[in-house]
Write a structure and sequence with these properties.
six-stranded mixed sheet; alpha+beta
Length: about 325
């Protein structure tokens, strides 16, 4: 989706999906993603340089140290995280180099170097790896005698956006929340809405709607409640935690977020008219620093707004008579 000049200058990106779901081509996965992963593995473990390979042929005998990358099952896509594919990475170590102990060391390096890490291929496409655990114990490869185990990672690829670039009118609540967040953070932060876009940047914040409800607040007023989830993603754990803490505290302290009129948003924040500005009220905000930043999000936010019911033109009841004797 094309960004307006105002949004771009404030570090606001829109991550809405604009097209129907589609599976990414297998060629894209087997070339760009795999090539990027192989390069990353060689950087993490220099002993694997030139030795990160696909599943060996039936008559091929591996020579260690090395690593094998295998694409496994596809997983139903996530509405905000995108296309998902499971990969298995298997480090192989020689017994004389430490065998099982060396495999454990390399496994720890892989988890630290890949979990929740944003990778970018040579064409600028971004994807994220999430560690999903290991279903294997250490074992000895019968053909080579090398010690190995398999680690499972999920590869999440934001779904490509539609090429026609047709704009979709955004919920004014999310536009206001994006703008507020961009103003609270440094200019190097990107702020997205609804889903991670292709080529997303770090550090970044994603806000997505998780729930919606309304309730009567008097005879002529409705209270609208929306629950949002905030994802704070960076390559520095301390920076991520500090940003979560800052956003959570500021939301609680400021209590209200302005929803600027459409003409004010178009002309810029300086032209806003206080008399025409509506507000969202912060009802509750909590944070979980241990939550998965990319997939689950760390911030839970509830915003409310009171709106008037539409006036219906109906005859008014002027008086009523009651006769107790009527049967």
């Amino acid at each position: 989706m094309a960004e307006s000049n105002d949004e771009a200058s404030n570090g606001i990106g829109n991550g809405q999906y604009l097209g129907v779901s589609r599976t990414l081509p297998g060629v894209w996965l087997s070339t760009r993603i795999k090539k990027t992963l192989k390069g990353k593995l060689a950087d993490l473990v220099p002993a694997w340089t030139g030795r990160v390979q696909d599943v060996p042929a039936p008559d091929e005998v591996l020579s260690g140290p090395c690593a094998v990358v295998v694409f496994a099952e596809e997983v139903p896509k996530s509405a905000w995280a995108g296309y998902r594919r499971i990969i298995k990475i298997s480090p192989y170590a020689r017994s004389e180099d430490g065998g099982a102990e060396q495999v454990e060391v390399w496994s720890a390096q892989l988890i630290e170097g890949l979990h929740q890490v944003r990778l970018e291929d040579e064409e600028g496409g971004a994807f994220t790896c999430l560690y999903l655990g290991s279903t294997d114990s250490n074992r000895i490869d019968a053909a080579s005698g090398l010690v190995t185990r398999s680690l499972r990672f999920g590869v999440y690829v934001p779904e490509p956006q539609r090429a026609d670039g047709n704009a979709v009118t955004s919920d004014p609540w999310i536009v206001a929340l994006q703008r507020w967040t961009a103003n609270e953070l440094d200019s190097d932060w990107s702020v997205y809405a609804d889903s991670w876009p292709g080529g997303y940047k770090m550090p970044s914040v994603l806000w997505r709607l998780n729930g919606y409800s309304t309730a009567a607040a008097g005879t002529s007023t409705l209270e609208v409640r929306k629950q949002w989830i905030g994802h704070v993603l960076s390559d520095d754990t301390s920076l991520t935690d500090q940003t979560i803490d800052h956003l959570t505290q500021q939301l609680a302290l400021q209590s209200r977020i302005a929803i600027l009129p459409v003409d004010s948003v178009t002309a810029g924040a300086n032209s806003s008219n206080e008399s025409h500005t509506r507000y969202m009220t912060v009802d509750e905000v909590t944070a979980d620093l241990q939550a998965d930043a990319y997939l689950n999000g760390q911030i839970r936010l509830t915003l409310t707004q009171r709106v008037r019911r539409p006036v219906t033109n109906v005859p008014l009841m002027r008086e009523i008579h009651h006769n107790k004797g009527i049967r």
